Amino acid sequence: MIFKKIGRLKKDKEFENSFLFKSSFNNEDTIQKIDRFYFNIDTDPQEVKFKILKKTENFFQIKIVDSYEYELKSGLEVYVKENQLPKLDKNEFYNDQLIGCSALSEESFSYGEVKRVLNSSNGTIIEIFHNDRTYLVPFNVSFIIKVDLNKKIIIIKNLDEISQLWKLIPYQLFLILLKTP
């Protein structure tokens, strides 16, 4: 059985019986097509049924609808069975589909390959590795021009400038700048 990671759970501090679900995709229609997820897939996969209560800016507030009490904690990774993944809209992607894509500038110069896709409360960030350097690029319309999964390419705005930032500022400061709205 193959599982795909679709997000993370976080305890909701406002409401005792609900959780915040940070998804790899933010289209509410896609999330509503899923009614169960799994966690602990490395040991004993636990199936959990849930219901969406509401969509916040960065999360889906969900309620677990199973009668069984789960010991759920913050930061728990959430998975679905690969054959249960809903078909995504044209401009949506599962994180693992982006891994291995070539990062191209607007002029079609290659600046490396996507090695990881990171989810944060501020959004998704792709990690690009090239010539012993790592570049982090927010995965949003301000930076991403086009994703072509058939050709395994991502065209990124101002990629040459982004690739030069490591020369100007320390990597840790670059990480902080990416998190700043």
**Order of helices and strands, N to C?**
EEHEEEEHEEEEEEHH
Side-by-side strand order of the widest sheet: 3-4-5-2-1-6
Class per helix and strand makeup: alpha+beta
User: What profile does the largest beta sheet have?
Assistant: 6 strands, antiparallel
Mean pLDDT across all amino acids:
80
* Termini Cα gap: 39 Å
Characterize the overall form. Answer: elongated
Instruction: Specify the helix fraction band.
Output: 10-25%
Low-confidence stretches: none
Radius of gyration: 18 Å
Question: Per DSSP, what share of the residues sits in E-state strands of 2 or more residues?
Answer: 35-45%
Number of strands: 12
Count of DSSP-assigned helices: 4
Can you describe this structure?
The protein is an alpha+beta fold and 181 residues long. The chain is built from four helices and twelve strands; from the N terminus they run ββαββββαββββββαα. It has helices spanning 28-32, 95-98, 159-168, 171-179; strands spanning 3-11, 18-23, 36-39, 46-55, 60-64, 76-81, 102-104, 110-120, 123-130, 133-138, 144-148, 153-156. The strands form two sheets. Strands 3-4-5-2-1-6 form a six-stranded antiparallel sheet. A six-stranded mixed sheet has the order 10-9-8-7-12-11. Strand 3 and strand 4 form a beta hairpin. The chain is elongated, with a radius of gyration of 18 Å. The mean pLDDT is 80.
